[in-house]
Amino acid sequence: MKKNIPNCITVFRLLLVFVFIFLFLSDIENKNFYCVVTFVLSGISDALDGFLARRFQVVSNFGKLMDPLADKLMQITVAVCMASVHPSLIWVPGFLILKELMMICGATKLLRKDKVVVQANFYGKLASVIYFAVFFVILVFPGMNPWLELILCLSFVMVSALAFFKYIREYLFVHKNKE
What we know:
Structural class: mainly alpha
Number of strands: 0
Helix content: over 70%
Strand content: under 5%
């Protein structure tokens, strides 16, 4: 039973992406509050499923694949939704999508050619935490100054870019050692 709990939480997080979209597009009263709650619930459940998988040593291939997918889908969804009402953020979803496509291509090449699965690194996790904090603030304070939004997003982008370059360095190291 324990081994299914983290995977169930991951599926729940995937469903939260659709809940967020529904809430964001709805006309219900206090929709921003419900969007924030959904976003926070997604972040908490992300930490919880990873903790439980490691704690009970029930890391699965499903979890390795779907956990980051659920995380990135929520990140891109929130970025797209926020860019639709905050024009100064229009570039953020493009950055996220481009970075993730490059990460997928690199990870796929490593897996196919060298049989290596790339693990999350400290900077990647830090970038996710900063992303979460930035978009939490933007969601909670919807009338924020566009320049402040830009500065907050640039902080996330800088750490995300650093994580990306660390992944490239790791990729090159692993690839070189496999040859």
